Amino acid sequence: MKITGDLVNSEPIKSLTIFFSEIVGKPLIDGAGILYGDALKARRIANTLKLENKYNLVKANDTKPTELSFGYKLLEKASIEEDENLLEKWANLLANATDKNFNSSIRKIFIETLDSLEPLDVQIFDDINKFCISQPHLYNTLVSLREIDYNKKESLNVLLSLGLITYGVTITPGIQIGGHAPTTFHGLDSFKVTEMGQSFYKAVTR
After folding, report:
1. Distance from C-alpha of 128 to C-alpha of 192, rounded to nearest angstrom
2. Which helix (H) or strand (E) holds 193?
3. Distances in Å between the alpha carbon of 202 and those of 83, 95, 105, 106, 113?
4. Which of 71, 86, 118, 192 has its CB 3.0 to 4.6 Å from that of 24, i.e. a possible disulfide?
5. pTM score > 0.85 for this model?
6. What is the pLDDT of residue 28?
């Protein structure tokens, strides 16, 4: 698709050009042309403007540009997201990535991870983490979902495949079999959030 002069010089594109410059440290030539190429469409612009608004609501006072490959990749993925809750997660990830004082992990794989999640997956994962944080043993807590149905079970399998949760295993203390304490495998009936899952949750939460 050829980007017309009217589109490139329009107020939304000017706004996005400033936005991209803040995120990756340099403006894009020809507005958003390099990032979007011939796939540029009004809907992607609208989604990115929503992202910009959400980002501005949660960004830190003291910011820094992301790595070029990280910022461009995130903006490209987020520009095709239309779910409001997922867009908030993209904005949070962007805000944490540009926050000079954010002291947890920000990895490129988090972009792919977030891009792989459906709204239900994100809702369930949020609930899991909030539950763990509220418990005395925090992330050492085994989690079980109530009233689990097919969709929830499918979401758990997605979270498992992405390395965000792991199967639950308990050890029976005080008993030795062959020099080892016996263990009970719970599968996804009771599970834990992995260290990667904890880092991802922090990265997409403000």
Report:
1. 9
2. strand 183-193
3. 20, 12, 8, 9, 13
4. 71
5. no
6. 54
